[in-house]
Design brief:
Blueprint lengths: L5 E4 L4 E4 L7 E6 L10 H19 L3 E6 L6 H10 L3 H16 L17 H13 L3 E4 L2 E4 L36 E6 L14 E3 L1 H13 L4 E7 L3 H16 L4 E7 L2 E2 L16 H7 L2 H9 L7 E2 L2 H27 L11 H12 L4 H20 L5 H18 L10 H15 L3 H13 L4
Parallel strand pairs: 3-4, 3-9, 9-10, 11-12
Antiparallel strand pairs: 1-2, 5-6, 6-7, 7-8
Helix pairs in contact: 2-3, 4-5, 5-6, 8-9, 9-11, 9-12, 10-11, 10-12, 11-12, 13-14
This protein binds zinc ion.
């Protein structure tokens, strides 16, 4: 379906049309985790939001080159590695694997690439050297800093205004920086942590430099269509990425900057270690399905904060079970009737309606209302004694299409020979008006998800 796609761009503070730089292909990057511990549930929200965006773009006929990184060089990783008595490489490899395992139940659309900061060091050195050449960076003390003052529209994404008391002044707390807003591109280090030889000395890059360099390197182009992440990354991380891009090649790095709202604890209080209310993604996904987690996040617009509660997740789990149950029962009936399945018989109006909501700045909650309506229709059909196999097939095809669009995962139900026998016995008992037997068989079929 050809449709216009509108997304909220933080820089323009408005919904804007997505016009891919390369017609037909969308380039998307969202900031991935710093791999030094298990991710908490709030970190997973952007992953799910961008997964739905990828699905919506693909359903609109676009190719998507989506990339998310692993920040595997960071002071936090070094500190944790030392605390645990293992190398940074061991630690980050462990938490990358833990992250991937934890997200498996979400059945995410595979990404084009997952670059690691540690594999992009050479490009970062070249990048910093060019910033120095271009006059956007300076050496001070043992470090290389970015000169924020050189970027006239600094603050373009976050709309953070420079504090007039601080900007442009030499400041006492760090004698070496020219401006409080300046940030380290390369830090000379003599600690125990990982370090690399570079033209600027033996040290390591700053986080803001890692992401911008990975983008330029992995996409082989100066500007991408969409750069995203959590709300907390808008400033200073994304602002500083953009500033470096301006200094490097004069481009703003991305045409659209998308930011995903926070997950808070119940009643909107901040999730934090000190309050003891942090929910780890792995703990939640050990107890609940990926579908439940998705439906929980889908209940609120992606730009708004969402409050976690056990009740909300349990409710989402019930909804997920009802959705999957409806499709399973359709699949079972179709197989019991030996009706040929045709995925192309789906309700195009319903699908386009849901897709239309997603193309309107990812109104996922509205798209879910379309799915809810189609599930109800399916349940009505299943209760109708005069239902035709064509109606069942079309309903199953519609639910399958909508599930795919929204990332709801459903392992297809396959009817066995034993199930067929059970169903035949059930039909026979009903025909004989043997209500005791038919009730018992019906119960057994319901437990199998067939009726
Ligand atoms: Zn980043």
């Amino acid at each position: 379906m050809k449709t216009s796609i509108r997304l909220f761009d933080s820089a323009r503070n408005d919904r804007v049309d997505l016009t891919p730089i390369e017609p037909g292909t969308v380039t998307l990057y969202y900031c991935g985790p710093t791999v030094y511990n298990y991710v908490h549930l709030g970190n997973v929200r952007p992953v799910i939001v961008f997964d739905v965006l990828i699905r919506a773009l693909q359903a609109s006929g676009l190719k998507v080159k989506a990339v998310s990184n692993y920040t595997d060089i960071d002071d936090k990783i070094i500190a944790e590695a030392q605390r645990e008595g293992r190398s940074e490489q061991e630690l980050s490899a462990y938490y990358i694997k833990a992250y991937e395992d934890c997200l498996a139940p979400l059945h995410l659309v595979p990404l084009y690439a997952h670059p690691k900061a540690s594999e992009t060091i050479g490009a970062m050195e070249d990048f910093i050297a060019k910033l120095l050449d271009n006059g956007f960076a300076y050496r001070a003390g043992n470090d290389v800093f970015f000169a924020v003052d050189e970027v006239s529209d600094y603050g373009a994404i976050s709309h953070v205004k420079p504090d007039e008391n601080q900007a442009g002044k030499r400041i006492a707390i760090n004698e070496v920086k020219h401006d409080l807003r300046d940030f380290a591109l390369w830090k000379l280090t003599d600690d125990e942590g990982i370090k690399f030889d570079s033209p600027f000395g033996r040290g390591r890059p700053g986080w803001h430099t890692e992401c911008v360099t990975m983008i330029k390197t992995v996409f082989h182009q100066p500007v991408i269509d969409i750069h995203g992440g959590g709300f907390d990354l808008k400033f200073p991380h994304h602002e500083n990425e953009r500033a470096q891009s301006i200094g490097y090649d004069g481009t703003p790095l991305a045409n659209i900057w998308m930011h995903v709202g926070f997950l808070t604890a119940a009643k909107g209080e901040k999730m934090s270690k000190s309050l003891g209310n942090v929910v780890l993604a792995k703990d939640l996904l050990a107890k609940h399905s990926g579908n439940a987690l998705r439906l929980f996040f889908y209940s609120t617009h992606y730009r708004s904060p969402i409050a976690y509660s056990d009740e909300a997740i349990e409710q989402a789990e019930e909804t997920a079970t009802r959705y999957i149950g409806a499709l399973h029962r359709l699949q079972a009936r179709i197989q019991l009737l030996d009706a040929p399945y045709d995925s192309e018989t789906y309700d195009q109006d319903a699908f386009n309606e849901a897709l239309g909501y997603l193309c309107d700045d990812l109104n996922i909650a509205n798209a879910v209302t379309v799915l809810e309506r189609e599930v109800r229709k399916a349940l009505t059909l299943l209760r109708n004694p005069r239902v035709t196999s064509d109606q069942l097939v079309a309903s199953a095809a519609t639910l399958t299409k909508l599930f795919d669009l929204l990332g709801i995962y459903c392992e297809p139900l396959m009817v066995t020979a034993e199930d067929r026998q059970l169903y035949a016995d059930y039909q026979a008992a009903r025909a004989k008006k043997d209500f005791a037997a038919s009730d018992q068989l019906r119960q057994a079929l319901m437990e199998k998800g067939i009726l």
